[in-house]
Amino acid sequence: KAEAKPAQQPAQAARPAANAQPARPAAGNARPANAQGPYGRPANAQGPYGRPANPQGQQGPYGRPANPQGPYGRPANPQGQQQGPYGRPANPQGPYGRPANPQGPYGRPANPQGPYGRPANPQGQQQGPYGRPANPQGPYGRPANGTAPQGGARPAGGNFGRPAGGAGRPPMGGRSKPVDLAPAMEKERVSNYDPNKKNYVRQHDPERVAKNRKQLARENYNGGMDDEVIRGGRRARATKKPSAQQLMAPIVITEATMTAETITVKDLTERIGKPAGEILKKLLMLGVMANINSELDYDTASLVCSDFGVTLELKLDKTAEDNLAETDFEDAEEDLQPRPPVVTIMGHVDHGKTSLLDYIRHAHVTQGEAGGITQHIGAYTVTVNDQIITFLDTPGHEAFTAMRKRGAQSTDIAVLVVAADDGVMPQTVEAINHAKAAEVPIIVAINKMDKDSANPERIKQDLTAHELVPEEWGGDTIMCPVSAHTGMGIDNLLEMILLQADMCQLRANPNRMAKGIIVEAKLDKARGPVATVLLQNGTLHVGDNIVAGLAAGRVRAMVNDKGERVKEAGPSMPVEIAGFTDVPSAGDDMMAVEDDRLGRQVVEERRNKLKAARVASSSKVSLDNLFSRMDQNKMTTLNLIVKADVQGSVEAVKQALEKLSNDEVRVRVLHSAVGAVTKDDVNLASAFDAIIIGFNIRPDNTARETAEHDGVDIRLYRVIYQAIEDIEKAMKGLLAPEYKEVLLGHAEVRNTFRITGAGTVAGCYVQDGKLQRNAQVRLLRDNIVVFEGKLSSLKRFKDDAKEVATGYECGVSFDSFNDIKEGDIIECFIMEEIER
Question: Which residues, other chains included, contact 231 with Cβ-Cβ below 8 Å and sequence gap of 6+?
Answer without folding.
Answer: 199, 201
